[in-house]
Amino acid sequence: MFRHTLIEALLNLWRNRFMNLVAAFATAVSLLVLGLFLLLAHNLSRLVAQVGSEVSMSVYLRADASDEQRDRILDSLKGRAEVASSEYLSREAALEKFRRLFPALREVAESLEENPLPASVEVHVADGHREPEELRRFAQELKSLPGVEDAAFDLPWVTRLRELVTTSRVAGVALGGVLGMAAILTITSVIRMSIYSRQQEIEILRLVGATRTYIAAPFLLESSLLGILGGGLSLGVLYALHRRVAASPAELVPILHDLLASSFLPQTTSALLLLVGLAAGVLGGALSLRKISL
Amino acid sequence: MNFASGSIPPVPGAGLLDSFSVHPVAWAAMIELYHVNKDYGRGNHALVDINLAVEKGEFVFLTGASGAGKTTLLRLLFREELATSGKILVNGMNVSTLSAGKVPFLRRKIGVVFQDFKLLAKRTVFENVAMVMEITGAPRKEQRRKTFSVLEMLGLNHKVRSHPLELSGGEQQRVAIARALVNEPVLLLADEPTGNLDPDLSRDILDLFKVINIRGTTVLVATHDRDLIARVGKRVITLDCGRMLSH
Predict the structure, then answer these.
(1) Among A86, A282, B188, B190, which residue's Cβ finds the most Cβ atoms within 10 Å?
(2) A212: nearest CA in chain B?
(3) Which residues of chain B have pLDDT under 50?
(4) Contact, B205 vs B195, CB < 8 A?
(5) pLDDT one-digit tens code per residue, A147-171
(6) Sheet of B218-222: strands edge to edge?
(7) Could you tell me if A209 lies within 8 Å of chain B, comparing CB atoms?
């Protein structure tokens, strides 16, 4: 039975090779779009992870904050799980930093009678505590400490990046889904044509006592192989594209380089792409066999 | 055994035959039809109130003009079509209530020789015949042994590698018969098996059916060739416009 199924499926693939190639390409294109978006999402989340590690919070002290209050703030920060490290920046040090960072404005700084910059504590947020909601809560808590004027962190940038990751995943799945439907329909038509071209043989097999499984199995295997072939093709093209971009100078289009060439899809995602191809094939095969009396 | 036209054989306990695979006990029936009707709609009655019984090991002719319902009756027996009403038992199986999944297993017990042969042009003579054994999952060695054996019996051993279209009408007919016989069916149905053949070849085919019958297979041959029937001298069931005339 298995031998018969395999031989018949391979023979069918060969007999209708042109149409089968078209179906495999249609599947490959849909999966390539899906794969491309997954690759973008994958590299974006890596980027977010990197940027996220630089998430810091500035806790500005009131001008009238006492040394005691300052020490208490520093002490309380040391015990917090959210804090990887913290660094106190006095008003003088802040002014010094300003002068160093903006030499052109040095004169302006000199002309001031009083140092306008507040003392602050630079807090580096620890890994695992960078969720926007948690950061917001932490900042709120710090603001309520005596002697604290304000606590600010670079949330919008992180949030936007995270949103981009989600958007590209959703867009990939949605677009891939629509194109996936097209691939399923293409596979269905091709398998149906393959069935029609063998109508006489199917009828005879039926009349001499072949079971539905015996007749249908080769067509299902054929469609599944088409799906996997499509998945494999898309994965191959995606990898070639990734390598091609990686080999080109990063300065050409830096963002493209970052998003396509930094890292390829993890093995599980690659396997998922093949699985989606297989699922499209099985579904296409099952649909084409549905209305045919065997 | 002789049954009056249109009557049900007086079988003790025939009412028990309602249930699937109950086999008649008083006599061994291969085919039993009880009040079988087949309508194709719009007043087209292909078969009307058919009652008949064919014993195991019998050789029976089914005759009648074209359109009398011979082919329809055969198609009902191997469940290619369902009767509109009535009950059909083949080898003890209630064909009317047989689930779709069990139909292939009924067909494996029945060898059918089709009027148009139904051979696969792209497959060799050997493949056309062996295919029937392959679907049963028989070991390849057994497939080869039985296929060669049946082809030899039918004088086709020198044509195993030929394709059907390279053969004469008579040879194609014999390939169709070989395919019907290779699974050692309990029942052989033949629809106009000599329709395309000259008289000599027709006689040969009929002789072959007699041999098959002597070996124990029940044979039901649908034909409108009255000369052929007269020569063989077996029981005849006549259909006329879907009604049974005589045994």
Answers:
(1) B190
(2) B101
(3) 1-26
(4) no
(5) 888 888 776 666 777 777 788 778 8
(6) B110-113, B187-191, B218-222, B59-63, B235-240, B243-246
(7) yes
pTM over 0.80: no
Q: Which of B132, B147, B172 is most worth mutating to test chain A (most A CB atoms within 10 A of its CB)?
A: B132
Residue with tokens 């038509």: A189
Cα distances (Å, whole numbers) of residue A120 to A67, A114, B27: 13, 17, 108
Interface test with B, best of A6, A7, A208 (most B CBs within 10 A): A208
Instruction: State which amino acid sits at residue A79.
Output: G
C-alpha span between A130 and A126 (Å, rounded): 7
Q: How many CB pairs under 8 A join A and B?
A: 43
Sign for the CA dihedral angle at B77, B82, B83, B86 comes to positive
Q: What percent of chain A has pLDDT over 70?
A: 94
ipTM: 0.82
DSSP state of A48: H
Cβ atoms of B197 and B205 within 8 Å: the answer is yes
- The gap from C-alpha A110 to its chain's centroid, in whole angstroms, comes to 49
